[in-house]
Automatic annotation (TrEMBL):
PANTHER family, alphabetized: HTH-TYPE TRANSCRIPTIONAL REGULATOR LRHA-RELATED (PTHR30579:SF7), TRANSCRIPTIONAL REGULATOR (PTHR30579)
Organism whose genome encodes this protein: Oryzomicrobium terrae
Gene3D superfamilies per record: Periplasmic binding protein-like II (3.40.190.10), Winged helix-like DNA-binding domain superfamily/Winged helix DNA-binding domain (1.10.10.10)
Protein name per the record: HTH lysR-type domain-containing protein
UniProt GO molecular function: DNA binding; DNA-binding transcription factor activity
UniProt cross-references to Pfam families, sorted A to Z: HTH_1, LysR_substrate
Amino acid sequence: MPRHLDMDLLRALVATADAASFSLAASRLGRTQSAVSLQIKRLEELVGHPLLVRSQGRLDGPTAEGLLLLDYARRILRLNDEAVGCFSEPELAGSLRVGLAEEIMERDLGVVVDDFHQAYPRVRLALECDLSARLAARVQSGELDVALIKRVGSQPTAEGRPLWREPMVWVTGERGGAADERPLPLALFQESCIFRVVAQAALGQAGIPWRQAFSGHSHTGLRQAVAAGLAVSPLPLSLIGPGLVRVREGLPALPDVEWVVLYAPNGEWPAATRLVEMFEARLWQGRGAQPAAVAAPRREALPA
């Protein structure tokens, strides 16, 4: 194992894993497909392990060793780019309009915002929380500079870079038997929430009758209702908190949740990129989620 890893090789690995394609990675890196393939092969030789799963001419995601190295590669490249930016970029200043899905607001938001203010004191943040579909529309219209949204399934309905992916699961209260009731009592968000749509569709396909036991707009209220044993609800795995447990049997499987960043059509502003990097570093590591490129091939997506 070498004592030093080439930055260009690490960048090729990250680009290929994110794109799940040598050709797309080559386009993003400004290289030929064969050159990127050779870079990955060289990196695999250096570390002594295959890093990407290849199947019938396509990529099926990183190997276990590839996933481990990807984590290091992202951090190494992030620190490198930050260091270079400190000396090559003008001081960032101005107003940054940011849209966040409510689930993002639930996760260490204060820590990320504080870190950002410390690093870029002249950038004024304006945060907006809404449904992902509405945030996506506001980014496309230029009303927001950047948005972190969720979508269920995979085929993108809007341009965006996948950040990480995690399972959507059924949850219930620790002491409740709501999951065994029929009709199944559900705690759901408003009509336009994609979690609601997906859950109802899955139960319908499984032939499981259900009734609405709680409806609201707040994650806090929904979780309290579920923790009290009133109902069952679909949630991203990383949002299972105190008083909630995962229902492992008796209910149909749900599709993964993918978290995506969207930038305004006028291009990425460096301040937006820095904020997204801080969220990405904070959120997917150690939360039961995985980089989006690791998940299975994508078929269908619905923004929430």
